[in-house]
Design a protein that fits this description.
Layout (H helix, E strand, L loop, with lengths): L1 H29 L1 H23 L15 H11 L5
Helix pairs in contact: 1-2
């Protein structure tokens, strides 16, 4: 799961770099507004990539893990309707 998130993050950041470099290397020669538009799109990619890379997936079961405090775990199990064995 972490490899998939990391791969998605690096693909998005690679796309960001490609947009910046291509915008100012050769797209600006044909159209400056398109180059600026490409940079604006590239500017939005890093925050979106960070959100997607840090998002928990449905297979992440972090909320079921005990905290280590028996009293707290017992209290949360009671609230969740679970019986501790």
């Amino acid at each position: 799961m972490y490899a998939r998130r990391r791969r998605r993050y690096f693909l998005m950041m690679g796309g960001c770099i490609v947009l910046f470099v291509s915008a100012w290397a050769f797209v600006r020669l044909w159209s400056m507004p398109v180059a600026v538009g490409m940079c604006v799109v590239a500017m939005v990619i890093p925050p979106v990539a960070a959100m997607l890379a840090n998002r928990r997936g449905p297979e992440d079961r972090w909320w079921d893990d005990p905290s280590g405090d028996p009293q707290s775990d017992e209290w949360w199990d009671e609230l969740d309707g679970k019986k501790r064995r």
